[in-house]
Amino acid sequence: LKGRDLWVLVLGRFPAQHKIGIPEFKYVANMHGDETVGREILLHLIDFLVSSYSRDPVVTRLLNNTRIHIMPTMNPDGFEATKVPDCYYTRGRYNKNGEDLNRNFPDAFENNNADIQPETQAVINWIKNETFVLSANLHGGALVASYTFDNGNSVTGSSQGYSRSPDDDVFVHLAKTYSANHASMYKGTGCDNRQTFPEGITNGYSWYQLEGGMQDYNYVWGQCFEITLELSCCKYPPEDQLEKFWRDNKAALIEYMKQVHLGVKGQVTDKNGNPIPNAIVEAKGRPHICPYRTNEHGEYFLLLLPGTYVINATLPGFRSMLKTVEIPDNTGNFSAVRQDFSFSEVSIRPTAAASCPKIPLYQELERALSAAVKPALHILCLMAILLGMFQ
What we know:
Helix 5 links the parallel strand 5 (about 140-145) and strand 6. Helices cover about 30% and strands about 20% of the residues. The protein has two domains: about 10-260, Zn peptidases (Aminopeptidase), CATH 3.40.630.10; about 265-340, Carboxypeptidase-like, regulatory domain (Immunoglobulin-like, Sandwich). By secondary structure, the protein is of the alpha/beta class. The N and C termini lie far apart (about 75 Å).
């Protein structure tokens, strides 16, 4: 960075620190410095939330039950470098070093050899130090809500032109939540006749393949569901249009934040009631390639749509504990269903955080699956030969 800080404003009843049971949410804008609408509407959002607290019951309950982090600009150098506003593209897209920050994160599918930039590293550290549950990053140049995965391989079905995550149903819901509450995104007309997005949403890979993107990094390594919001056909519109952009997005921004209360949350404790960090807690049938683990307070948060799920809490080296949970739509109550796990026979001292390797994990999984398939193919070939001999 050129001596500029990345500023984050934290809003909530307890803004200074994480409180047990209160999920963490974030909005990030302007990672492409010439895409300015997100930067401006997040400043409007901050003003609206602060001025509406204790006056608006929805905003009040949202802030009482959520810790909201807002980063209006991830690329202040690129923004400052955009001297001549343009609807399509300027060099201000990149940071001071000429790097695209949304191609700069570790990738779960390919070796991303880009030098990690200071802005990227700052966001990686931020994700590591907070228990983010839900997020969105705000862009310009299209009008659509795009969701994980942005990259893919045969494991995620990319050969069919769609890269599906284990939580695809939740991501579709999240994208539709924003689109349906936006003034026009839900119409799906896009920005020209060549590009349409049914219901105003798209799988990232289906739109175009992207390596080193921030939303995939959040989901795989940050245990945080993130979608990408393209909010304006014009990347850097005239100043007199900004008020309309705020009005068009206001309801969607609020409704999307409420989705951080989907699903189930809880604590994993030992026989003395002490929290157990690094326990694996996941819904049966949807394992993450980097297992989702409890934080230092023994907390977990899983975004799940209404339904019946079996939640599996596992302590490596000990047994697993399964609990069936009925999940209603609790977003209006501003609290996910609570389901705690107590390992009464275990007494555990806190351990160092379990790290997930930054190698392309899905590439490794693809290799492992292909190695497992080869013996099966050999057996099939041998059977075919034997059948031919005996016929």
